[in-house]
Amino acid sequence: MKFIIKHEIPGRLRVHFDQPRMTCREADTLLYYLHCLKSVTGVKVYERTADASVCYVGDRDEVIAALRRFRYESVNVPSGVIEHSGRELNASYQEKLVKRVVMRTVGKYLLPAPLGSILIGIRSAKYIWTGLKSLLKGRLEVSVLDAVAIGVSVVRGEMGTAGSVMFLLGIGELLEEWTHRKSVGDLARSMSLNISRVWLLADGQEVLVDASSIVPGDKVVVHVGNVIPFDGIVASGEAMVNQSSMTGESLPVRKETDGYVYAGTVVEEGGLVIDVKEVSGSTRFEKIVTMIEESEKLKSAVEGRAGRLADKLVPYTLAGTGLTWLLTRNVTRALSVLMVDFSCALKLAMPISVLSAIREASMYHISVKGGKYLEAVAEAVTIVFDKTGTLTKARPTMKEVVVFGEQNPDEMLRIAACLEEHFPHSMAKAVVNAAKERGLEHEEMHSKVEYIVAHGIASFINGRKVVIGSHHFVFEDEKCTVDEQHSKQFENLPEDCSHLYLAMDQRLSAVICVEDPLREEAAAVVNSLKKAGIRKVVMMTGDSERTAAAVAAKVGVDEYYSEVLPEEKARFVEKEKASGNVVIMVGDGINDSPALSAADVGIAISDGAEIAREIADITIAADNLYEIVTLKLLSDSLMKRIQKNYRNIVGFNTGLILLGVGGMITPSVSALLHNTSTLGISLASMQNLLD
After folding, report:
1. Dihedral sign of CA atoms 433, 435, 441, 444 in order
2. pLDDT tens digits, residue range 372-415?
3. What does the longest C-alpha to C-alpha distance in the chain come to?
């Protein structure tokens, strides 16, 4: 495609495409295309000017060549990317804002005064009717104050004042609606499905295929802990499915043959074969948006308090207006009080502050499912970390396969990978990746696998029972043994690794040693969290006491617990909450989900199991734990902004009331200053909290 380079510095290009402007669809297509280039690190596309700003690393000529190859019609953009990008939403609200300002300017300066007054009178009817409806329901709300202020101004013939009040109220409502819809859209996009590969049932075999290749009528297999990728009907199997993201149900629902399942729900127990009915993800996006908008999760306690306080202040404002008139017998001074209310700013600025914080969190790859969780993070004094995949790196690697007897290491690894590939855990991924690197191909040689959460996997291969998992599962639950001649070899397993035990017919066959290196930033993150106000940092793991103690010493946690089961993690969280502490739980696996649910705030590492992300209240990117510190600082800054807003609103509006009662400003000026301050505080609340 033709373009010119408008500006260039090393690593950054500003280009203009040969067209007057782009449509929103064209701009999003270009944005997707450029984001897919490996050398591109950042892109901004400006549809109004048909410009694009491209940041890149490496060879400049590759970027130029890619721009030349670009054609709108040749880019295959996944379903839902363009439809829910938010670009069209932003453009529509920008146009609405411009339209309102233009109409206000035309009405005030270009229309004849009589015609302008008639239009203001007509527009005022909406506000007056809304206030009357509140009174008829027996409620004194902010709408009553707006109706009285506008109505009295109209009756007194002060059409300019009434027009200014309605204009500023309209702008405020538009900004609030825009911010709310954008934040909800960002949140819904972060919760939308991102499934690239699924298990297709073909000729009785499970085959791992690209999700994009699935069509209605195909049968896909979903194992425990995995997200259901498509809407469909259960063809076989039985499972407990967590549908909270779709229906709001707190308890999992049993699904069996002929039952209907929804994309985005998660299998907590069992497994299903699903006859696919819908492959489009757009319906899920819309369902999520509806769920978020209807959910009280979006509301923080400070938002609720602000709303209730705003309504409680309405009678006092009306009483103050009446008292001023009784004492001064001056309608102008009484109106100056009426034109000023604390409620408007309180109800507008607080939700905007919270929603803007959620939006800003998404810029740091942090997905927050509601404002109440940011408030809880700010108040938290205890944080509990899972070890594997959380404090340690999300991608552990296999170090060696220790075999016992005449077993072949590659064959043991092949069997382990065949079993582990069905289940979402970082240790399982390490085994599967190691087999792939060694070129160990395998068919589905086993019978149906049974997965016991936080313990291990059991199945049959050629009539022989095979189990793989933790020490507790293999030796205590399954009663497997180590041959006496191998006891010394067993006692000398590498101490710096986590171990997966593989047994066949009740006898230990191999131990897969997995390196689980500590994240470089883990100790610094723990220290930063303590400085930020966290008083107790706890680590809990299913690993051995020896491994847990070594990691705890390096990280600097206050307490650690080893060889814990999922229910024990949840009990610890409940105990901390019973002591009056606000608790954060951070985890990435299926075994963390009970504790994530129990905590005041559950934080899931996005590279972990789908069920952890589904249950968690906040999801962060897995590449850097510093994002937890960022989340804490963001939450603290939000609470400080809200307290600052309270002070500014009360202080400024009290000053306006005193000036009005003293006759130093007119009702028109009072209304203008009040609404301008409300708008200013709201706009300030939309600014980023972190520099």
Report:
1. negative
2. 899 899 999 999 998 877 888 767 788 899 999 888 999 999 98
3. 105
Is the pLDDT confidence value at 294 over 60? no
What is the CA 577 to chain-centroid distance, rounded?
24
Buried residues in 103-114 as b, exposed as e (16+ CB within 10 A):
ebeebeeeeeee
Is 4:43 a contact under the CB 8 Å cutoff?
Answer: no
> Do 643 and 669 fall within a single domain?
yes
Is the pLDDT reported for residue 596 higher than 50? yes
Task: Please calculate the CA angle 548-551-553 and round it to the nearest 5 degrees.
Answer: 105
Say which CATH number the domain at 69 has.
3.30.70
> Is residue 630, in this structure, part of any structural domain at all?
no
The phi and psi torsions of 278 (rounded to 5 degrees) equal -130, 135
Kind and range of the H or E element at 470?
none
DSSP-H helix ranges across 365-472: 371-379, 409-420, 426-437, 471
Within a 13 Å sphere around the CA of 462, how many CA atoms are in the beta-carbon half?
3
* Phi-psi domain of 290 (left: phi exceeds 0; alpha: psi -120 through 50; beta: other): alpha
Is the CB of residue 495 less than 8 Å from the CB of residue 513? no
Whether residues 302 and 162 share a domain: the answer is yes
- 313 shares a domain with 169: yes
73-116 pLDDT, tens digit per residue, is 988 887 667 766 778 888 888 888 889 889 888 888 888 888 98
Averaged pLDDT of the chain: 82
Is the pLDDT score of 578 beyond 90? yes
In a domain, residue 324? The reply is: yes
pLDDT (mean) for 294-319? 64
Identify the pLDDT of residue 360: 85
Q: Which structural domain range is residue 28 located in?
A: 3-77
Q: Are residues 566 and 604 in the same domain?
A: yes
CA separation for the pair 545, 258 (Å, rounded): 46
652 C-beta neighbours (distance < 10 Å), count:
19
Q: Are residues 425 and 381 in the same domain?
A: no
**DSSP-derived secondary structure for 202-249:** ETTEEEEEEGGG--TT-EEEE-TTPBP-SEEEEEEEEEEEE-HHHH--
CATH number at residue 449: 3.40.1110.10
pLDDT value at residue 183? 60
Q: What is the pLDDT of residue 576?
A: 94
Residue 342 and residue 307 share a domain: yes
